[in-house]
Amino acid sequence: MWFSVRNLDVTQLLTLVRQPGAESGRLLRDRAIALLRVQDNHVKPIKKLLNDFYGYRSTIAHGDPLPIDNADEFHRQMWVFETLVRSVLKAALQMIPAEAELRRQALTELSGVTEEDQIEFLRQRAKGVEDAARRERIVAALEA
To answer: DSSP of 55-101, one letter per residue?
Structure first.
């Protein structure tokens, strides 16, 4: 139970570097990487760590048991994750302005969703539309 509460608290802290509204976990991971100015060769393991612990958060929030095979390794990773979150928050406090509009701008510049990103997301979602005519109209509208 201790880990459950602690993990929820720590992962929730990362949402402090989110903009109001729904942002993807990918965007949050990208923003954390940008805030930390991580070198390319370290990006993949850090994104994996963030993704893993957000997965644990979701598992806990849904009331399911955590899939932990090696408790010692898990606790080591938890310590690394918490240290990473502290570093992200410290970088955010040093860089992101307090005023709302300037804050939104700074967060967007770090790893904002471009219009092309939004269109690509909609293209991917359109693939799930079963009605072919409707799907084609959606794709055509996106291309216009």
So the answer is: HHHHHHHTTPPP--S-HHHHHHHHHHHHHHHHHHHHHHHHHS-SSHH
